[in-house]
């Protein structure tokens, strides 16, 4: 039970995370093998709608990684990212995610849905120009509008290597790719980064959003962030009270279980069709 306790604390505190535990190395090897395969068995994306609050229109989707391990079943995406981030598997994974997301974006466009697609990237992806080159090439190959594609980047990612990351982010921004600052409020130098980065949207962290109706501190944080005047997407909208408060404050968009949980591409399309029928 000692190892169980230790495993728990590694999950909670990023700094103490053991990248070399046998379990992690095993997961890393299995992921690498899956990604080496052209169909990447078990690797999949779920999509969660992003809703414009003023009129309820679905403006896009966030692509979220799902990995079903042959023995363990579904593995928590945060665990996958933490495990892969310090190895070359991260790039393989991100390239696969981008490829699936762009193919889906194109399919939706062909089906008459004018949506944008948001994809999460890790700091590793933005430290070298290769990912930027890859993304540029793929956007072109799929013939999608770069403005319909958005990268979600966390503040902590930017702080790790601000100069190199900034260079790559700027290149993508020049292409028209949207830059969303994910988990906003959980980092440390928010205002500084906001000034220097070509950020098109702030995505305020769900830890502030979910409880804003009952927690005055979180309410103040969220309303102040809205007042920064940037397009704001609130994640973790779990009920209608929160949706309404955000809308009253002039928040641009919301995402969360109140609207829908992340879904497979098929389920997303069904959900979208049903919603349009009802409106
Ligand atoms: P994130 O980008 O901040 O994504 C939001 C997380 O909140 C997702 O968890 C989503 O399922 C969850 N969520 C959505 N609505 C609600 C809600 O109303 N209430 C609550 N409590 N949670 C909600 P998920 O899918 O487990 O992903 C966790 C994190 O893993 C993501 O956080 C992101 O940082 C990372 N991640 C996921 N997919 C990828 C990926 O393809 N690449 C990279 N680099 N990271 C990814
Ligand atoms: Mg995100
Ligand atoms: Mg987030
Ligand atoms: Mg998060």
TrEMBL record:
Key words of the record: Membrane, Transmembrane, Transmembrane helix
Keyword hit for Transmembrane: yes
Domain EAL: 24-276
Keyword Transmembrane helix: yes
Protein name, entry field: EAL domain-containing protein
